[in-house]
Structure formats: structure tokens, C-alpha cells
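2024-03-11 09:14:02 DEBUG pipeline.ingest accepted 1 chain
2024-03-11 09:14:02 DEBUG pipeline.ingest length=446
2024-03-11 09:14:03 DEBUG pipeline.predict start
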Amino acid sequence: MIRLVLSDIRLQASMWWWTLLCATVGAACSGGSVMAMFSAVSAARAAGDARMVSASIALGGNVVFFTVLAAVGVVASAVGLTLTTQRREHALWVILGIPRHRVRRILRTELVVLGVVAGLLAAPLALLVASVTLAQWKGAGFDLHGATAGFRFWYVGVSVLSGMVPCLLGGWGVTRRAAKTPEMRAFRDLSDPPARPGVARCVLALCLLAGVVGMWIPGLGFELKGGLAQRTGFTFAGNLFLVCLLLLMGPWVLTPLMKLWTALVPSRGVAWHLAVQSCRARATRSVTTVLPFALSLSFVGLFMVMGNVMPGGSTGLDNILVVLGWVFAVSWVGGLAVIVLVGRERARDSAVVTVAGARPGVVTRSMVYEGVIYAGTAILFSAVFIAVAGLTTAIGARTAAVRVLAGLPWATLGALAAGTLATTCLALVLQAARVSLAVAVRALRS
């Protein structure tokens, strides 16, 4: 079985390479955040500074939480998309006589191999991440008593776990479906299979919904002893649970949102029509591409809303990056990796359009419009979420929602939105240039 696992990874190396990159960056950022917090807490305890111990745990805990959350979500989505894209190859295994339970075991072994390799590659990078994180904290005014990110053997275990867990979470359900899907359906279906919420996703969604309600009730409806700070803290937690819930249910949130706003665009161009239909038919690919950018923009917006309401809070991007810097790194790398790793599938779709008679310029423009659709969906989702976060936070702070929203640094948010649009479009422009050089018949045969 190991021989088959290694052979399949080698044959699909062009796809697994980008998934490995995404998993390595996620493991490095997650593991490095844990190492930075441990180093800061250890140095503060050695110096006998109880206040700095508490501050390091509070700041480090937030950095670790948001970074790990982003890494798990982005890497798991990328892994799931990679396996879904290979569903025809897996169906061919069944046709050739490999038992379904063995197919499932082979694919899960591949995920373990991927996670271990990503974790080992991330170990030295995690030390760099930890050093940069400590430097950020020092620049923010924290006295870390000379804390440094020195090597400890258990750091390797943290890196390996940071690589394995997202890979297994993202591929567990996909491997189960791959072993159950009738092989002829896998060959016949041209569009992505409809998303179905599994038991684990439903249970987690209910827990997150309970968290939203449980945090919003005291934050919005009661006068608490802690006053404004405690109420806004509850609303912040409720909004955090909300964004996690919405992105967890991405196929049932992002896909309808994408269909809604693209249907309102009054364009009759062939390129735009091709882009819209491609995004709708390849719904899994679309959701996985949108999710990293929607996640990072929503987190930034949530922190800016809190900074605008809390006394002494800051909405500056430099201060927010102290907590969310590695979230940006994981999200942007994950988004670009997803765009690239489905290049073969996109090239096949473009070849079909070319053979049908479309000119090369139409195919190129349609791919650029895909980037616009991805970025537009992420920006629209984050804008709606920021509005909800601003409204609920204003109610908790007993102030006007208009004042909260008007006080946000919209120029900074606009620059981040423009950066998202530029990133997705540039990545697809480069891919369109490569696809235009490919021979259509060869792309269809691959």
C-alpha cells in the first residue's frame, strides 16, 4: 500500500505540491505562534514578572487562536478540494479492482504523509515565525525580558501536529465520499458534486450557533457589572462565533451570495457569462478560493470595529497585524495555492470552450472575470459581516451604529479590498497566459 501511496503522490505531484505549500505555511505560522507564546511566558516567569506573564498569555492566546483557526480552515479546504479534483482517478482505482475500503485507507495514508512532511518542513520556518512574532510584540511595547525563540525538541512535535491535523480534518469526509461514490457518476459528472453537510459539520455548526446566541444575549440585552468593556467583549465573542459559523457553512453561504450578486450584474458579454457559469458549475473550487480572503477581511473588520468602540482601542492596521499578521500570510498563500492547484481542471474547461469556437481573448477575459467574481464575493461577504458586527457592537456599547461604522478606517479597508481584487485577478491572468500557450487537444486528453 505504501508503494501505491508514494506512486500516486508522485503522479499527482503538480497538485500536491501546492497543497503541501499551503499546509507547510499553515503549520509554520501555527507552530511559530505557539513557540512565541511559550518563549514569552517562560521569560516572564523567569524574571518574576506576573503582569507580563498574564499579558503574554492574553496576547499570545489571541495570536495562536486566530492563526490556528485560519490555518485549519484554509488548509482543510485546500486539501478537500485537491482530493475532490482527483475523484475520477479514485473512481478508476475502483474500476481496476481495488476495494473501496482500501481506497479510503490509501487516501488517508496520503493525508498523513502530507501532514508529516509539511510539519517537518515547517519546523525551521516556525522558529523564524516565532522570532518575528516576538519582535512584533517588542515593537508594540511589551517588555519580554529578552525572550528568544530557542530550539526545543518538542517544537518538532508541535509542527508535525500543526501539519497533520488540518490535512486530516479537510480530507476525512472527502475520502469517505470517494470510497462510496459510484465510479460511473464520478466520470459522468462535469460539475462539482452538491455539497452535503456531514454529521461532524452539523454538530460543530450547532455548537457555533449556540456560541453566537450565548454571547449575544448578555452582550446585547443585559446591563452587566463590567459595563461597556464586558458587553462589547460578549458581542465580540458572538461575532467571532458568527463568522466561524458562516465560513464553516461556506457552500451554503458563499455560493448563494456569489449567485445573487453576479445575477445582478447587467452584462451580456460572452466572457462574463462563461466566468459566471464556470464559478457556479465548479462551486467547490469557487468556495475554496473565496474562503481565505473572506476570512482575513472579516477578521480585520471585526478587530477594527472593536478598536473603534473600546476606550483606548486602535483601528490602525499595524496594531491589528500584531494579532492577525500570520492570518494574512496563511490566507493569501492558501488562496493563491487553490487558484494554481486547480490549473489543470481550469485548462481543460478552457480547452472545451476553445474547441467550441471561442477566440483566445474570450477565454482570457473569462478567467480574469473569475478573479473578479472570487474577490467580489469575498469583499461583499466581509462588508455584510462588518455591518452586522458594527450594529451588534453598537447595541452592546449603547451607542449609534452609524457612529461606529462611520469611524472605521474605510480607506484601509478599501486598500485591502483592492489588494484582494488585484491578487486574484493577477494570479488568474498569469494562469490564463499559460493556458493560452497550451494545445487544446492535449489539454482535453490530459
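2024-03-11 09:14:41 DEBUG pipeline.report The chain is about 85% helix and 0% strand.
2024-03-11 09:14:41 DEBUG pipeline.predict end
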